[in-house]
Specification:
- By secondary structure, the protein is α/β, with parallel strands linked by helices.
- It has three domains: 198 residues, Rossmann fold (3-Layer(aba) Sandwich); 99 residues, 3-Layer(aba) Sandwich (Rossmann fold), CATH 3.40.50.1100; 79 residues, Alpha-Beta Plaits (2-Layer Sandwich), CATH 3.30.70.
- Helices cover 43% and strands 19% of the residues.
- The chain has 17 helices and 14 strands.
- 50% of the residues are buried.
Length: 413
């Protein structure tokens, strides 16, 4: 890529210094094999498990590096940050380690698990209506009003250097890596990782991934200036940043080879696969890298390994259940259909028995007595089933039709 001239105040030397600064409080997260992902992609895929990092995401790296660089007077005044959740947790932990006050502005719609985690780490949470960008504006106002030091989530060279330590670790742990796939929100993780790993392994390609609902980087790179996205309504809340940074855009342009986008369905399927086959709980933003691979959004290299960075694992239990439902539906593993049965004893049991005979698991049964055209001695039924995939769904529908039921497939959502 070519676009604006990168700010060379951030280079591998700064990232190496950051690695020394945060050594100890930050874990060197493991890189693990991803057998099922590798099989589906047709390349050797490994996973950099930042979802297992302290606070559940890579963000603590940059926060610790930034607060460690503050003066005694700045520490005495306290810090403020805006975040969808992961940066707030990192700042809260870093602030507690350096015995300073942390005020965190978060969107009202931020996951409850992230809000409660920030409070648990000692951060003072202030919820803001709207998106991350609204929280960011509120944090800037608070910094001026209350004399707090602003810790930007991505547009700060010291924060970016901390995030770049991920790249140093990948190069040391997996030297056969020839491609790194990493989520892009503000861009600090992608830029920092790319700077670091290309210093160690110059031939490595770095691919950034954004949600197609909130993807400001492709048009911003094309226009050579930050362009805002219109929406941030995605399950990838951790990367739902509507505008690239002034620092990060030129760095991403210079060091990241390509930025692709994925749908929420793609991400949900990746989350389910990582949970089932790799036994890893990963949030939407964290699963975006794997989603891009599974959805065929990039061409794996002919040789070497592909390292997908799982940037975070902070997801509400309720959101995880919703993502599992969405992922199973997108993968054809949930089937919903409605039909009409005689309103007499045993009729429903016959229908359910036919479904059970095909090995499907019944998740929900709803009687439809209003809003449908029914005879007085009929009742409508809507079934939601858990299946083994699209072919299994077709066998179930065929078996139900063979019993004389008129079937209307529906969305399982």
């Amino acid at each position: 890529m070519s676009a604006p001239t990168a700010n060379r105040s951030v280079g591998v030397a700064e990232i190496e210094r950051a690695a020394e600064t945060i050594r100890g409080p930050v874990r060197e997260t493991p890189i693990v094999a991803a057998g099922e992902v590798s099989r589906r992609v047709g390349a050797t895929v490994t996973l950099k498990t930042e979802n297992l990092q302290r606070t559940g995401s890579f963000k603590v790296r940059g926060a610790l590096n930034r607060i460690a660089a503050m003066s005694r007077d700045q520490l005495a005044g306290g810090v403020v940050a805006a975040s969808a959740g992961n940066h707030a947790q990192g700042v809260a932990v870093a602030a507690r380690a350096h015995r300073t006050r942390a005020v965190l502005y978060m969107p009202e719609a931020a996951p409850i698990a992230k809000i409660e985690a920030v409070r648990g780490y000692g951060g003072q949470v202030r919820l803001v209506p709207g998106t991350f960008d609204d929280a960011a504006a509120a944090s800037r106002e608070a910094a001026e009003r209350e004399g707090l030091t602003l810790i930007h989530a991505f547009d700060d060279p010291i924060v970016l250097a901390g995030q770049g330590t991920v790249g140093l670790e990948i190069a040391a742990q997996a030297p056969r890596t020839s491609m790194v796939v990493v989520a892009v929100g503000g861009g600090a993780l992608a830029a920092g990782t790319a700077i670091a790993i290309k210093d160690r392994l110059p031939a490595v390609r770095v691919i950034g991934v954004q949600s197609d609902v909130c993807a400001p980087y492709p048009p911003s790179l094309a226009a050579r200036q930050p362009i805002g996205a219109r929406s941030a309504n995605t399950i990838c809340d951790g990367i739902a940043v509507k505008r690239p940074g002034e620092l990060t855009l030129p760095l991403v342009s210079e060091f990241v080879d390509e930025v692709v986008t994925v749908s929420d369905d793609d991400v949900a399927q990746a989350m389910v696969l990582l949970l089932e086959r790799s036994k890893l709980v990963v949030e939407g933003a964290g699963a975006a890298s794997v989603a891009a691979l599974l959805a065929g959004k990039l061409e794996p290299p002919a040789g070497g390994e592909v390292c997908a960075v799982l940037s975070g694992g902070n997801v509400d239990a309720a959101r995880l259940v919703e993502c599992i439902r969405l992922g199973e539906t997108a993968a054809g593993r949930r089937l919903a259909f409605s039909t009409v049965i005689p309103d007499r004893p045993g009729a429903l049991a016959g229908l359910v028995g036919t479904v059970a005979g095909q090995g499907a698991n019944v998740l929900d049964v709803v009687h439809l007595r209003e809003g449908v055209d029914l005879h007085v001695r009929e009742t409508g039924i809507r079934l939601v089933l858990q299946t083994d995939g699209a072919e299994h769904c077709e066998r179930i529908l065929a078996a139900v039709r063979a019993q004389g039921f008129a079937v209307r497939p529906e969305s399982a959502e």
